[in-house]
What we know:
The complex is a heterodimer of chains A (445) and B (345). Chain A is an all-alpha fold and 445 residues long. Chain A has helices at residues 2-16, 19-36, 38-41, 50-60, 66-82, 85-103, 109-121, 127-132, 137-170, 174-194, 229-265, 267-281, 285-296, 300-309, 313-327, 330-337, 342-378, 390-403, 411-439, and strands at residues 223-224, 227-228. In chain A, strand 1 and strand 2 form a beta hairpin. Chain A starts with a helix and ends in a 6-residue tail after the last helix. By secondary structure, chain B is mostly helical. Chain B has 2 domains: 20-81, no CATH class; 106-344, MetI-like fold (Orthogonal Bundle), CATH 1.10.3720.10. Chain B has helices at 2-28, 32-39, 42-47, 50-59, 66-78, 92-127, 132-146, 149-163, 174-181, 192-198, 202-239, 242-249, 254-283, 286-291, 297-306, 310-338; strands spanning 84-85, 90-91. In chain B, helix 7 crosses helix 11, helix 8 crosses helix 11 and helix 11 packs across helix 13.
Amino acid sequence: MIILSEEFKRTLKRFFTNPSAIIGVTILIFFVMIAIFAPWIAPPKLPNNRNLDKAQSLLDNFTEDNKDLIIQELKEFWNDNYLFAEDDYIEMSVLMEKIKEYQKKQISIDELKAYIKELTDIYILNETYYNKFEEETNKVIRQLKQEFVKAEKKYNNSIVYSNMIKNLEEIEDSEKFIKYANNLVEEFNKNFIKSINFDPYIMPNVTTTRTPIPPSQEHPFGIVNQKDIFYGVIWGTRTAFEIGLIVVAISTAIGLFVGSVAAYFGGWLEEVLMRITDIFMSIPFMLAAMVLTTILGLGIKNMMIALIVFGWMVTARLIRGNILQAKNEQYVMAAKALGVSDFFVIVKHILPNTIFPVLINATMRIGSMVITAAALSFLGLGAPQGYADWGSILSYSRDWIIGGTNPTQYWFTILYPGIAMILFVIGWNLLGDALRDIFDPRMRH
Amino acid sequence: MTTYIIRRLLLLPLIILGVTLIVFSMSQLLGPLKLLSTYVDPNTYAKMSERDIQILMEQYGLTDPLPIRYGKWLKSLFKGDLGWSVVGKEPVLSALINRFPYTFELALYALFPIIGVGIWLGVTAAVHHNSFIDQFIRIFALIGWSLPDFIWAILVLLIFYVGLGWFPPGNLSIWADQIVKSASFQNYTHLLTIDALLNGRIDIFWDALRHIIGPVIAISWLWWANLLRITRSSMLEVLRKDYVRTARSKGLPEKVVINKHARKNALIPVVTTAGQMVIGLLTGVVIVEMVFVRTGLGSFAATAAQQLDYASIMGVLLFTSLLLIIGNLIIDISYAIIDPRIRLG
């Protein structure tokens, strides 16, 4: 163990005296920081309410004259959001009764369906419940029960809040009033925002015009297709890490498994596994990933599946070659002669001595996987519309630069996401390069 | 060596069969209903009743068990029937054959600058190992290697077309396109530049060349990076070999040592990379073709994928896989002939 730690120390020293390793690691740490602190660097714009915002600002600069205005804003908010809560609740409880009757076979499915239709017509229920009812009856009934719980909660809240607003009107003392009103605004905000399904990875629309808007104080990287580029670049860092790390980790694991099994057991198993590897390698990677993504349907997840399915072969070949070499080493023969089990020999003796080239290869592949994923998004085959992803933003910019009348005026649409992407890939490539220099025995002298 | 070549040739049908199996399995992920929509015109499909759909599914054998369907599909493949391409508005096979010359021509023109400059840069870097030139070339390679092709292609278009107006996108200018499509223009090879010369139309030749230079620049940097890295490391290894030291100690001039003794041997591994590059150029220039709005296999595949034209993308995948398989076979065999050490593998 002492020898190992000496070796480890020397390796670390080599690593930290290698300039490209230092630059690469610095760049990557920078991106990791951005990914971790994304919610603080580019806070997602939670959906807000005009009435609440106004009430809040009036409260912040409270004067006695404002009192009525504040109450009025809060009342308006209540009207917008809770006015029909009671009606909805009553209708929904009738629906629950009908469902119970249907489950006891007292009414037919058509009667139940007709009532759902009534509710969708007055916009209490979403239309999909009616459309999907016959196909997936049980699933829809389960969802309807959840809707009922929601409606019930909303109704209960509505009573509480309307009482609170009434109480507010009666409070004379201004300090008490501020405290009480603030509390109410906070409650409203909490319930209003929490009830909306919010995804920070979807870039919000920040303007109404589609034309790109140059960088400004508020949007430092400018705006393209109504999306804030700064927001997209910051949150896109997370997407890039997600794609790169997950795809490379899983495909490397598959390759390790296939390659090590083939090399260790040999014989017909090796022949079969390596011919399968050959077959997968005989399909052009980019086109294969493109076709599989198209077939599975657009989306980050499907794109990652496609990249994994066609991305494991290099690792398999690499580890097989290394193991075949290691198999003839004396320490492995000794372990086998001692009767150590096959699995144990692979995990304990062979893998640790052959894994470094695989890890180096994996590090280098992260960059190229991110490029391929971005290329797919660029062609409109990867990330869905509006997803925070560097490739998507660059595909917006292509439309303006190639199709626009005066393309150079839209430089910012390509510059910032492009630089982020190139730096990210350079970081991984530098790291991989440095690791290869450090671990490659031929480079040691 | 003969056994090696025979073994490779025997494996060839197996690999091709395996590729068809993968492509078939991928198409089966679509499910029978979407598969049917690849056979039927979308407008008529929308009007069909469920009973009609059922009858059609039986007619096209979509209700058969999987192995039978695979057999039928293979049979139609051998007949050259790859289905109907919605994007190309013609059978998939003829769409592929019509587009292949464009990609081939682009690859042909890209090849010379890439190989020439790439090897030159690699050798220069190795000879001036760890000097300023070496570091500069390494940084050049690193940037080229890390630069996503779509960003670089857009930049090339921006500089050389929008900025300088030299190399426009597309295949040909409109006037030239009209002449090429007219009856008086003979298509001998289907390669625009060569056909233009054979027809004696220098103006069309220049026009076609002008359109091809932009994409060639866009492709080159990415491949230079790759090629020069391989050349550099291979050259460095050879320069450490004993016979190079012997040549130097004999008092041979450095130029002779490098050109006559080192470079020849260093280029053996480069042959594989160069071969793979040719295959890569033929099968994977999707982005560059899309950005430069060129006709070709890559842009055909991307457009078909965007419009969910499943028959076309399957066809492209099969066609390019076949190119890849045959290309790799040629590389491996020629490699075995060049380098005696490989023959046993």
